[in-house]
């Protein structure tokens, strides 16, 4: 075969490979990213709905301006109820911020120690969770424990709602992901254990402590710990791509309005949620996201524009596509705010 023919074949193969790869490109993500930036946040929300989200709520609190709300799409798709900025939303892992603040307060009260180990607090887990004698409370808060994530266990999802009652069982007797403090891996098991430790130390449910120490002082009257505490009509419906079911009635922990999350995030970032000596020892994040079936949320503080942005979207999948799209949208919203400045 001549050199010229070899070159031609290589070019054909490269072109074919490129064509195949382009077929699998998530074009909606590309489109959402490259479209001209709208002039207003509301236009961006409307555009996001056109990308396929069922419903959306955005809350913006920028210093020097009154808080603003933006909505698009449906609160309830089946009953054709439009998105309502006052709807309750399942905030999922954003709740970890509240837990981390509460743990910090307990450390400041000398009822907990960030340096004590999992085995110190729950001795029966020695031999059930690898390195329990070396994993500190601080490592768990920072996801540096190496404890496996129970939601990564396929068996957990066979009957998620029922298995959630004994979620820890799906992280026991498994090899550690890494040695304590030897890496980072997001693990819901860490916070499951932290909340259990808090319950044991307090002698009552940690939710009561969070309410007394965080929610009441900040006047967060629209933040709750369970769907059993609220009227379901006040909750935004939740949808999973390709499934007609409304996941609103499923128990996924904390619920809040976008405004309540925004007020809390502002207090976390400006330090007003803390008592004296607590901000200096707080070991966790200042922004967070949340994802459960039907609900994805992002809560961010941007120091350069002194702005809180909370974004609730009631459409999910677990392939990363909808999550990536939501991140593109919130980044564009922040750009609009910066541009306005």
Radius of gyration, CA atoms, in whole angstroms: 23 Å
CATH superfamily: DD-peptidase/beta-lactamase superfamily
Largest pleated sheet: 6 strands, antiparallel
**Overall pLDDT metric:** 92
List SSEs in N-to-C order.
HHHEEEEHHHHHHEEEHEEEEH
Helix content: 25-40%
Describe this structure in words.
The chain is of the alpha+beta class and 341 residues long. It has a single domain (38-340), classed as 3-Layer(aba) Sandwich (Beta-lactamase). Helices cover 36% and strands 14% of the residues. It has 11 helices and 11 strands. The strands form 3 sheets. Strands 3-2-1-10-9-8 form a 6-stranded antiparallel β-sheet, with helices on both faces. Strand 2 and strand 3 form a beta hairpin. Helix 2 runs parallel beside helix 11 (321-340), helix 3 (41-50) runs antiparallel to helix 11 and helix 4 crosses helix 9 (206-215). The chain is globular and about 55 Å long. It starts with a helix and ends with a helix. Residues 6-24 have low confidence and may be disordered.
């Amino acid at each position: 075969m001549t050199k010229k023919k070899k070159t031609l074949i290589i070019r054909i193969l490269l072109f074919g490979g490129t064509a195949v790869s382009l077929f699998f490109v998530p074009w909606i993500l590309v489109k959402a990213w490259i479209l001209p930036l709208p002039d207003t946040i509301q236009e961006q929300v409307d555009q996001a709905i056109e990308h396929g989200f069922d419903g959306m709520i955005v809350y913006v609190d920028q210093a020097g301006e009154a808080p603003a709300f933006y909505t698009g799409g449906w609160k309830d798709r089946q009953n054709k109820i439009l998105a309502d900025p006052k709807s309750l939303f399942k905030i999922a892992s954003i709740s970890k911020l509240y837990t981390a603040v509460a743990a910090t307060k307990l450390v400041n009260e000398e009822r907990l120690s960030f340096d004590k180990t999992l085995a110190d607090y729950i001795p029966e887990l020695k031999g059930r969770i690898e390195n329990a004698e070396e994993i500190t409370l601080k490592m768990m808060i920072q996801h540096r424990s190496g404890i496996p994530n129970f939601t990564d266990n396929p068996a957990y999802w066979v009957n998620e709602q029922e298995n959630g009652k004994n979620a820890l069982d799906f992280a026991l007797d498994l090899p550690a992901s890494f040695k304590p403090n030897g890496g980072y891996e997001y693990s819901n098991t860490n916070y499951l254990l932290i909340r259990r430790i808090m319950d044991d130390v307090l002698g009552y449910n940690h939710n009561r402590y969070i309410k007394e120490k965080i929610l009441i002082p900040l006047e967060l009257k629209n933040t709750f710990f369970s769907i059993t505490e609220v009227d379901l009509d006040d909750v935004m419906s939740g949808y999973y791509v390709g499934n007609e079911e409304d996941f609103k009635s499923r128990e996924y922990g904390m619920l809040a309005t976008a405004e309540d999350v925004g007020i809390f995030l502002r207090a976390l970032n400006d330090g007003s949620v803390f008592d004296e000596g607590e901000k200096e020892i707080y070991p966790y994040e200042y922004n967070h996201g949340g994802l459960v079936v039907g609900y994805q949320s992002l809560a961010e503080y941007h120091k350069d524009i002194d702005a809180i942005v909370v974004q609730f979207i009631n459409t999910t999948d677990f392939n990363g596509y909808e999550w990536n799209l939501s991140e593109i949208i919130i980044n564009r919203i922040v750009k609009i705010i910066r541009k306005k400045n």
